[in-house]
From TrEMBL:
Subunit and interaction comment: Homodimer.
Organism of provenance: Alteriqipengyuania halimionae
InterPro entries the record matches: Aminotransferase_I/II_large, Asp_trans, PyrdxlP-dep_Trfase, PyrdxlP-dep_Trfase_major, PyrdxlP-dep_Trfase_small
GO cellular component, one term: cytosol
Protein name: Aminotransferase class I/II-fold pyridoxal phosphate-dependent enzyme
Length: 392
């Protein structure tokens, strides 16, 4: 039977990790998979996370099962950061559960919307490739539209046209902040307008937050999303702790539902529990428990915020340096100064991406997406010169 299966191509982004590791050149530059890197190119464990792990190790007295909802202390501990200090449950209309990474949360959100009758996902593209892949795997269609109008602004008209094509119950997927892969986000005013459009079309908004704190600030990065949530009767939020707590391989995510009232909220969460049980039974515990310990300790929380601020500052320096370089070869780097977070897209074709890899040891996604965190004081000039070499 298994011979009937067609071979599948490995995930292009994850394959890039192996290609980079196999390259013997000492001065190679990794702008591929989305992980934060420090000035030395490392992705260290946060000091606040290390300390929280030690505390967890000393105090954890059981590893017995929790339930499909995971660690409720972790889930509730994140809520003031996502939804605001002032009534984070919005009068008892928001509840959540832990998931295996943000990916598990996105899968749960799509599956729940489908169980409620949704048939399609309205998706601005390019997007994180796994959004499309998860939707396809679940059996949802895609109503795609161009996320960006140019190198620095969103294409609002394309979003409006896509919403017009959707049916009530369809998903509207929006990136909370630091859009992956373009780095181009909606303004707060646009978020408010999208909320009106979504409500009128009776869509199920899914707000995917994977980079809180890496754009403009912990609060700033969710301002648009909070304005959106204040204006809609229901929505789902999918959250990843990969980047802002540096917990990538521990698979730490959360899923929240905002419902019109408590009865609908209970129904949604009971369905989400049942879907989680059928998919993964329970989320892995360690990372979520670590974040719970961290967020309950004022000193560790302050340290985590400091580390996050330093990361954001470094990303800002890289963006400013690229923007100041102006045009290199055929590429105008100025708009990168306006973008947020880890990613930006470069207007390079697949031959140029291959030439950067072969001739300069510079690794980036085939789409032209770069993870700017792979740049530092010692390689940024070489990167800019290499772009001129392959595009000039
Ligand atoms: C990325 O976009 O590079 C990251 O979110 C890693 C992943 O899982 O794709």
């Amino acid at each position: 039977m298994l011979e009937r299966l067609d071979p599948q191509a490995p995930d292009a982004l994850l394959a890039l990790i192996k290609m980079f590791n196999d390259d013997p050149r000492e001065d190679k530059i990794d702008l591929g998979v989305g992980v934060y890197r420090d000035e030395e190119g490392r992705t260290p464990v946060f000091r606040a996370i290390k300390a929280a792990e030690e505390k967890l190790h000393e105090t954890q007295d059981s590893k017995s099962y929790l339930g499909p909802e995971g660690d409720s202390g972790f889930v509730n501990g994140l809520m003031p950061y996502i939804f605001g200090d002032d009534d984070p449950t919005r009068g008892g209309r928001i509840a959540g559960m832990q998931t295996p990474g943000g990916t598990g949360a996105v899968r749960l959100a799509f599956a729940l919307a489908q169980a409620a009758g949704g048939k399609s996902v309205v998706l601005g593209e390019p997007s994180w490739p796994n959004h499309r892949q998860i939707a396809k795997d679940i059996g949802l269609d895609i109503i795609g539209f161009d996320h960006a109008a140019d190198a620095a602004t969103t294409d609002f008209g394309a979003l409006e046209a896509a919403i017009e094509k959707a049916q009530p119950g369809d998903v509207l997927l929006l990136h909370g902040s630091s859009h992956n892969p373009t780095g181009i986000d909606y303004t707060v005013e646009q978020w408010e307008r999208i909320a009106e459009l979504s409500k009128a079309a009776q869509l199920v908004p899914v707000l995917d937050i994977a980079y809180q704190g890496l754009g403009e600030g912990l609060e700033e990065d969710v301002a648009g999303m909070r304005a959106f949530l204040a204006a809609v009767p229901e929505a789902m939020v999918t959250y990843s702790c990969d980047k802002n707590f540096g917990l990538y391989r521990d698979r730490v995510g959360a899923f929240y539902v905002l419902a019109a009232d408590r009865d609908i909220l209970d129904r949604a969460i009971s369905n989400a529990n049942s879907l989680a049980r059928a998919n993964w039974s329970m989320p892995p515990d360690h990372g979520g428990a670590t974040v719970r310990v961290l967020l309950r300790d004022a000193d560790l929380t302050a340290q985590w915020k400091e580390e996050l601020t330093a990361m954001r500052g470094r990303l800002r320096w890289i963006r400013d340096t690229l923007a100041k370089a102006g045009t290199t070869g055929a590429i105008d780097l100025t708009p990168l100064g306006e973008h947020n977070g880890l990613f930006s897209m470069l207007p390079v074709d697949s031959d140029q991406v291959a030439a950067l890899r072969k001739d300069h040891g510079i690794y980036m996604a085939g789409s032209g997406r770069i993870n700017i965190a792979g740049l530092n004081e010692s390689n940024i000039d070489r990167f800019i010169a290499a772009l001129a070499d392959v595009t000039g």
